[in-house]
Design a protein that fits this description.
Layout: E1 16-20, H1 27-36, E2 41-47, E3 50-61, H2 66-77, E4 85-90, H3 99-116, E5 119-122, H4 128-138, E6 149-154, E7 167-173, E8 192-197, H5 208-219, E9 237-241, E10 254-260, E11 263-269, E12 275-280, H6 284-297, E13 301-303, H7 309-336
Parallel strand pairs: 1-11, 2-7, 3-8, 4-5, 4-12, 5-6, 6-8, 12-13
Antiparallel strand pairs: 2-3, 9-10, 10-11
Helix pairs in contact: 1-2, 2-5, 5-6
Length: 337
C-alpha cells in the first residue's frame, strides 16, 4: 500500500473500492453508497398540502450502518456537512403550547437554523411537535436558503406508505382521509425523509435507536471520547485506521475503512459537529429518545421547561439534583470547619 497526496487505497480482498472524500466525490461513489445501504424504496414526494415543495425519501432496514447513511446524506442529498445538528423530540399528540413559549421557541429555532446552517431532525410526522417544527420552518423568510429538515420515521407507522413503495418514482402524497391507530401522515414541510423498516407495523418508536446513532455519526463524536468499533448487527462494519491522512489537509482527523455489501469505502472524518437534542413536552417514547441520545450516544439534551409532561419531569429532576448537590457541598464545608 502506498500513500500520496491523492490518498488512494488498494485492496486485495476482492472488494470494489470507493474513495469517499472531498477530493473525489463522483456519481459512481454515490451509486455504491446507495447500493450498500440496501435501499428498499426511494423517490420524491410531492405533497397535496404543499404542492410547491418536494421531498426526497429512502426506506432502509434498521441494521444499516449509520455512518454509511451519514455519508449518503453529505454526498448525495446535501452538498457537505452541517455546522450544527438540532434533533427535536417531544409530544406526538396535538397540544397547544403557551403563547410566550411558542414565540420564544419559534424565534429561537428560526434564528439558530438560519444563522448556523444547521440540520434539523424530527420524527417527520404531521402531529405534535413535528408538525409545529414543520410549520415554523415553512415561514422561513429566506427562500433562497431553505432550512434542511429531515424526518426519520418508522416505516410501519406512515399513513399511505403503500404509495411510497417505489424505486425512483415521483409520488403524489395526500393526507389519508381516515385515521388508523398506530399510523400518522407525513409532515409536508420536511425536506428529506429516512424511513426505518424493521418489519413491524403500527409500532411507534422503532426508529429511535437508529436515529440517535445517526445523529452521533453526524456529530463525529463531538461530545464523545468513544472510538468507532465494528458492529455485528449493522450492514457495514467499520474499522479505524491511522494511515492515509491527506498531507494537504489539516481538517481530517481520522480515517475509516467501511465494508458494506462487497464495497469498501475509505472515509476521512473531518472536524466534529456539535449536536443537541431539544426536548419539548413528550411521553414514554420521548424518555427513550433522551436515553438513546444522552446515555448511549453522549449527545446533550436541552429541556424546554414549561411545556409539560416528561419534559417538565426531567427539568424537575434536574433542579432537585442541583439542590441535593448544593446541600451536600454545604454539609462538606460545614464539617471541614
Amino acid at each position: 500500500m502506498t500513500t500520496e497526496q491523492t490518498s488512494t487505497l488498494l485492496l486485495d480482498d476482492g472488494h470494489d473500492t470507493a474513495l469517499v472524500n472531498p477530493q473525489q466525490d463522483d456519481d459512481e461513489t454515490c451509486k455504491k453508497l446507495f447500493q450498500s445501504m440496501n435501499v428498499l424504496s426511494y423517490g420524491t414526494i410531492t405533497f397535496s398540502d404543499n404542492k410547491s415543495h418536494q421531498a426526497d425519501f429512502i426506506r432502509i432496514s434498521n441494521n444499516v450502518s449509520p455512518t454509511l447513511v451519514h455519508e449518503f446524506l453529505t454526498r448525495y442529498w446535501y452538498d457537505g456537512r452541517p455546522s450544527l445538528v438540532i434533533s427535536i423530540t417531544g409530544g406526538a399528540k396535538e397540544y397547544n403550547m403557551k403563547p410566550r413559549l411558542l414565540r420564544a421557541f419559534r424565534h429561537g429555532l428560526l434564528k439558530v437554523a438560519r444563522t448556523t446552517g444547521a440540520w434539523i431532525i424530527t420524527g417527520g410526522m404531521n402531529t405534535g411537535i413535528m408538525k409545529l417544527v414543520g410549520e415554523i420552518v415553512q415561514i422561513n423568510p429566506d427562500r433562497s436558503r431553505p432550512i434542511p429538515l429531515i424526518g426519520i420515521a418508522t416505516w410501519g407507522c406512515v399513513s399511505g406508505r403503500e404509495h411510497l413503495d417505489v424505486r425512483g418514482s415521483s409520488v403524489y402524497y395526500a393526507k389519508p382521509r381516515s385515521n388508523i391507530r398506530g399510523e400518522a401522515p407525513l409532515e409536508p414541510n420536511h425536506t428529506k425523509f429516512i424511513f426505518i423498516d424493521d418489519g413491524t407495523e403500527r409500532k411507534y418508536g422503532r426508529e429511535i435507536a437508529f436515529r440517535a446513532q445517526l445523529e452521533q455519526a453526524m456529530s463525529s463524536g463531538f461530545f464523545s471520547s468513544k472510538t468507532t468499533t465494528s458492529s455485528s448487527n449493522q450492514s457495514g462494519n467499520i474499522s479505524e485506521t491511522s494511515f492515509l491522512q491527506p498531507e494537504n489537509s489539516r481538517s481530517y482527523k481520522k480515517c475509516f475503512l467501511l465494508l458494506a455489501n462487497n464495497y469498501s469505502f475509505l472515509i476521512f472524518n473531518v472536524d466534529p459537529v456539535p449536536a443537541v437534542l431539544l426536548v419539548v413536552e413528550g411521553g414514554p417514547n420521548t424518555v427513550r429518545t433522551v436515553h438513546e441520545a444522552v446515555v448511549e450516544n453522549n449527545i446533550p439534551a436541552v429541556f424546554l421547561e414549561g411545556t409539560g409532561r416528561c419534559c417538565d419531569l426531567f427539568a424537575k429532576a434536574f433542579h432537585l439534583y442541583n439542590e441535593y448537590r448544593r446541600n451536600i457541598e454545604s454539609d462538606d464545608e460545614t464539617s471541614v470547619k
